[in-house]
Amino acid sequence: MRVVMATWGRFHSFHLARRLYKDNWLAGVFTTFPKFTLRREQIPDELIFSNPWVHVPMLAKARVGLSWPRIDGSLYAATDWFQQRFIARRMPECDALFALSGSGLSGGRIVQRRGGIWLCERTSSHVLVQLRLMQEEHQRWGTEPDVATQWIVRKELAEYDEADAVVVPSTFVKQSFLDEGVPESRLRVVPLGTSTAHFEPTREPAADEFRVLFVGQVSLRKGIPYLLKAFHRLSHPNKKLVIIGSMAPGMKAILDRLPTDNVEFVGTVPHLELKHLFSRSHAFVLPSIEDGFGAVMGEAMACGCPVIATENTGGRDCFTDGVEGFVVPIRDENAILDRLERLAQDTALQKRMRASAIAAVQLRGGWDSYTTCIKNLIVELVDRKRSAVSSRHGGSVVRGDCRSSSQRSTD
User: Fold this and answer.
1) How many CB atoms within 10 Å of residue 160?
2) pTM of this structure
């Protein structure tokens, strides 16, 4: 089987590319990152189709918190046109294109015309649900939302409609598609993996403090205000909240209205250093308003750190509520506070959840399990399309979830 991948940026796609290449499935990777980022994954240059000339400067701008609101829409549109043209001119022969949403429209159409299949992977909620959630959040805080331009929405909707299947990482994302009228037969849930080789406990949390950790962009989308409010109300003689991640534009003004006592904003840190921060923390909180599947949850669990995550993070697909951590509603500082208090007051609960979290991640099988699910899905759809063509029947559908029966029962 020959598979081409397309992605904006890095995300988890590079993990999949490395494993597909190892299994001799990879026919090429289209990326907006420089080639050296995929060389680190042992992908040979001849399989890397890199077009970084516009996207990388835009990422650098975002990393330092700059904003160009008047030209960002047209700049993104021009970047996308450039990338889609780049893909169309270089698409190798393949059986399947596996593309992150927003990156596969031109290539997907080409592969389908050639008789192959196109899988669109959407790691966030349906674009219309995502927009509504964030518009509501900005309205709550009296700020101006960074609303996606109409061409982004139109392209996403076209991808959902035209791809042979839409791969989503959690039941939360799946439900968002169902709510927007996408047939269940076109959806497949494949939870993301965890780099178990890089994440493991390196120490025990200190017994004389209660340390809470957040990792991600400091933004309204990540639900930071609700975490800050809950932590402020937590009664503990030696508490500390460590927030790792870049600051979203405009977020500083919101933070000025929130309590930040005993809170340390660290900024970004090297990814592989996170295991030490997870290991010394008593709880990791992911209070996101919209976050299709927070892969960082698995990284925290692999280091033995109990997780408190909202319903909109894919938490229910990552761990069992009350066993390795807690799942709470979005925008509910009281629920976050309650779970923090339980962990702070019960060292035995901390230890049980630490042990359960490590065991759960090891049982899931890391990125190998994710890759196996994707490969099985590709084989299924390719075989179905070939059978349909040979029997002169059109169309193909995807049914079922790449999960255990116990996971499906939680839907």
Assistant:
1) 19
2) 0.88
